[in-house]
Automatic annotation (TrEMBL):
Protein's name according to its UniProt entry: TerC family protein
NCBIfam families: R_switched_Alx
Keyword Cell inner membrane in record: no
Keyword tRNA processing: no
Pfam families given in the database record: TerC
Length: 321
């Protein structure tokens, strides 16, 4: 139990340092600054696998798994969550563009959005593990759902429709929203009436879309492991790095035209692994290599594609969507 408490304390200390010390004042996050934070989060995530190894090898955490198996499952789960969060980055960029969120306030939106995501994902992970423990056939439901998610990702275009979002519609119906921004404030008081700002609406939009993406990513990690500690920690580290990764990639998102196909392949791979789990037992390192290779091929193919061809394909995708 103290491992869970210690991990949560570590996460909140890092978040407090992020917002309270390093980003106390709202400012435009430069690519160099974001790259530094991304390096830090990735380094912490990888270093945590060493702790996982010793925790399971020395039986600090009661589990039938050995240290190496646990570390590989953690790293594979982290890679799955990190790769699937790439699609989330595209949608966040569209949300910020739609609401015209000033660049200096985007970090604040992502910080509070990710803080909320930590809570909701924790609840969803706990619920999913209970379902799998009580109803083992749910793994087939998750597998079929991931195949459907892969199909939707392959055939649908990335679009943002806040007016069609039921949460946003409900929010605007029963809560006053200002037309203009008031600095970094989410709420303001106008004529003794407390109203939300467009920054708050953007935050709600980011939060609800992350919950929708969690319906894909959380079942996907159950194909790797159902160990609660490994599922939770790998998921949380991937989410923590999402914010800084967004600012690194914000100006070059349109370059990754082939990344979607890598994500579709990863979803199909983990779905088939779920559906065939009684007949096919792949070693943990095989899943890690396959997922890493799929992600690397999608990134390299996109970066090596000539810029003009990339822009043409992006335009065609927009017209087809």
């Amino acid at each position: 139990m103290w491992f869970w408490i210690g991990f949560l304390i570590l996460v909140f200390i890092l978040l407090a340092l992020d917002l309270g010390v390093f980003n106390r004042r709202s400012h435009v996050i430069s690519t160099r600054e974001a790259a530094g934070w991304t390096t830090l989060w990735v380094s912490l995530s990888l270093a945590f696998s060493i702790f996982v190894y010793f925790a399971y090898e020395e039986n600090w955490i009661e589990s039938p798994m050995g240290g190496m198996e646990a570390a590989i499952d953690y790293l594979t789960g982290y890679l799955v969550e990190q790769s699937l969060s790439m699609d989330n980055i595209f949608v966040i960029a569209l949300i910020f563009a739609y609401f015209k969120v000033p660049e200096q306030y985007q970090h604040r939106v992502l910080f509070w959005g990710i803080l909320g995501a930590l809570f909701f994902r924790g609840v969803m992970i706990a619920f999913g593990i209970v379902l799998l423990q009580q109803f083992q056939w749910m793994i087939y439901v998750f597998g079929i759902f991931l195949l459907y998610s892969a199909y939707k990702m392959l055939t649908s275009s990335e679009e943002v429709h806040p007016n069609k979002n039921p949460t946003i519609r409900l929010l605007r119906k029963y809560f006053p929203i200002t037309k203009s921004y008031y600095g970094e404030k989410f709420f303001v008081k106008i004529r003794h009436i407390r109203a939300g700002t467009p920054l708050f609406v953007a935050l709600v939009m980011v939060e609800t879309t992350d919950i929708m993406f969690a319906f894909d990513s959380i079942p996907a990690i159950f194909a790797i492991t159902t160990d609660p500690f490994l599922v939770f920690t790998s998921n949380i580290f991937a989410i923590l790095g999402l914010r800084s990764l967004y600012f690194v990639l914000a100006n070059m998102l349109n370059r990754f035209v082939y990344l979607k196909y890598s994500l579709v392949f990863i979803l199909v791979f983990v779905a088939l692994k779920m559906l065939a789990h009684e007949y096919v037992h792949l070693p943990g390192w095989v899943s890690l290599v396959v997922i890493f290779a799929a992600l690397l091929i999608g990134v390299l193919a996109s970066l090596l594609r000539p810029a003009k061809s990339t822009e043409k394909e992006v335009a065609q995708q927009g017209q087809n969507g």
